[in-house]
Amino acid sequence: MSTKERLEESLLVDEKEQDLNEIVLFNDDVNTFDHVIQTLIDVCEHTPEQAEQCSLIVHYNGKCTVKTGEITDLKPRCSRLLQAGLSAEIV
């Protein structure tokens, strides 16, 4: 593969990644770990291990990206997180 082809491929990947947004989950003093973990499993389709890790990151760092994707996929997920009483936003 030539240098030009690698550069073009890299630019295409960068363009595709720029179209992605993130749901960021924020820490609060209200929700239990069990509630956060189950909600991440149900809404973001996390594995139990992934949901537990995210809940710990949120607890200790104050926030964590819990889902990355296109805005059309993230909006309903973020709404469900909010309805479940979690603090989240799309960035």
For the structure shown, list the relevant keywords:
91 residues; alpha+beta; three-stranded antiparallel β-sheet; 4 helices; elongated
In short:
The chain is α+β, with helices and mostly antiparallel strands and 91 residues long. It has helices at residues 3-18, 33-44, 48-61, 71-83; strands at residues 21-26, 63-69, 87-90.
Structure, explained:
Helix 2 packs across helix 3 and helix 2 (33-44) packs antiparallel against helix 4 (71-83). This protein has a three-stranded antiparallel sheet with strand order 2-1-3. The chain has four helices and three strands; from the N terminus they run H-E-H-H-E-H-E. The protein is of the alpha+beta class. The chain is elongated and about 55 Å long. It has helices at residues 3-18, 33-44, 48-61, 71-83, and strands spanning 21-26, 63-69, 87-90. 60% of the residues lie in helices and 19% in strands.
Strand order of the largest sheet: 2-1-3
Gyration radius (Cα, Å) is: 16 Å
Principal-axis shape equals elongated
Give the overall average pLDDT: 91
- Helix content class: 55-70%
Total DSSP helices: 4
Q: What is the CA–CA distance across the termini?
A: 35 Å
Structural class: alpha+beta
Main pleated sheet: 3 strands, antiparallel
Tell me the number of strands: 3
Order of helices and strands: HEHHEHE
Low-confidence stretches: none
List the helices and strands and how they pair.
Layout: H1 3-18, E1 21-26, H2 33-44, H3 48-61, E2 63-69, H4 71-83, E3 87-90
Antiparallel strand pairs: 1-2, 1-3
